[in-house]
User: What shape does this take?
Amino acid sequence: MENTIVKISNLVKRYGDLIALDHLDLDIKEGEIFGLLGPNGSGKTTTINCLLSLLSFDKGSIEIFGKEMTPVSYDIKKQIGVIMQNVAVFDQLTVYENIDYFCGLYVSDKQKRKALVDEAVEFAKLGDFLKFYPKKLSGGLLRRLNIACGIAHKPKLIILDEPTVAVDPQSRNKILEGIKQLNSSGATVIYTSHYMEEVEQLCTRIAILDNGKKIAEGTKDELKRMIKNTETIRIEILGLEETHLKEILALPHVYNCNYDGSVLTVSCSGGKHNLIRILGVLQEHDIAFGRVYSELPTLNDVFLEITGKVLRDKGNEE
Amino acid sequence: MFFHDLKYFIKCGLRSQDLMFWLILFPIALGGFFKVAFGDLYSQITDTSPIPVAVVSEKENQIFSSALESVSGSDDSFLDVTFTDRDTAAGLLKDGKVTGVISSGDKVSLTVAENGLEQTMLKEFVERFRLNEKVISDAASSDPTKIQQAVSALSSEISPVKNVKAINGNSDVFVQYFYNLIAMTALYGTMLGLKICVENQADLSPLGARKCCSPVPKIKGLSAALCGCFILQTLCMVICVTYLVFILKIDLGNRLALVYLASIAGGITGVAMGFFVSSIGSISERMKSGITLGVVMFLCFLSGLMVGNMKGVIAEKAPWFNKINPAAVISDCIYCLNFYSDYRRFITKMLTLAAMTLIFSALGIFMTRRKKYASL
Assistant: This one.
């Protein structure tokens, strides 16, 4: 049986009247890449800050590696690597010095540290920029430096809080590949993001947070099974009439049908051969059609359906 | 871990352009500005050569003759006296060969051709003589042997500059600006103190958050940072004093080693004060920086950095404040070295600085050591 690395039980965090975390429970197993997904203000970063004992909380408990996490749990902290949302490096130190400094907070042996720093440099592909100061680095390189500083000491648990914000696609891919590499070398990863495709590509298990509550948890497939939509069919078509739409909507497993004058979109829930049945209706009425697409639900569909299909930003709302 | 932290803290500090500007370049620039602004006055007031004066003796005045004798006749005397007649004296004055003409008779009077520092000092001398003439005269009539004693008392009053020169120090009002400049530089150490807070508190910066996640006990991190600040500020103070003394040639007296010591102690107090002030409250780094700098400038203003006699005004209205104002204590500390021949006051001021450093550091650590934050 897999070991539980992080156990969060009944966690409650309030900011005055606002409940940031509402009785949150999480179990993160060894070797997982665990995704914390949620809209802005859903409580992802608050969860991470509580986990790291930076934030006080009102109720609940947090255990890491089977021990209670407190601000003075130095033995636990030694095994954690943190990559915060905001880049946290010294502008006055070079790339190499920054990695060496942060690694030195965890590893005091100089020789061992040098080897670790060299590995981190190699991992983040920063070898050509060792003597650069952070201000001279591009956004992507800066993010990679931020990650290198957080993982140089080879932690067993790596916490990444939206590490790819404002990063170009190439750098983002490099970062995601790096995270997979870290995971395959034995590290458990907690990854927060609101980029669905990243989480879908990366995470083995995902929890969706909304308003401080965990509203869903499971693997990608488990989450996709939680929503009504299992298939979306799009057909380029002209001259469709209301009666045809009613006929399609009456087909088994079809629960929604939209026509905008050029594309028919049909949402199906479960069942097989949905596309064949829809095309059968069109052929029956001798209706010509163009390109046909059949899409399985993405994590984005899951996220939008579960969290309410509305983009939210707490800061703007309040 | 401690030395690792310390090494990188010092590296960061030395490479921080902002810090180096405020801690080294700005005081150097301001010192240069003071020197240019006060240079002429400074050279006049520190000019120790006697003031040339013509004396026209219209009638024998034994008391005045004795007074003149006591303030002239040697290289470090107050006056360089030329006895002559009225016409020659007028010519000398017109040609600028003497600063003034003193006529002695029943009444002592002074004639000067223009206004200036030396003329003011001559005027002061004559006025003080007039004020004391009756006292000396009475003393002479009751006991002629006391005349010299009374005249000596008068001569010791006539020029604070000359009196101070007797202990080889320099306490003129313009040097006070440089004392205050040293105090200001010392208190700019508050910026280093602020750096400690920012880099060690999770609610002030991402760096603080990252450090709080590390397995380094906070007290260890804070101690390394404080030591780093003390070293950096010591370096800045040494550069500042060296620049004033050896480049600008400001006379800070002949107890230079103690001037360095006082400046370094002041700098360390400045760091501790900054650490304490910036550890109060949970506001943004920018706000803390503004408040810290505001406090420093206010304390420097009250110690006379901007207005020369401000410290005197405070001494009159609220004397206790000068005893706890770090800027005033630092400048007083250096002033004491030049003004008093003993070390009692200097030691008192140094102990005050040490106490302030300890209190500020302890309170700063107490407030920064908090383990968890209510919000980030």
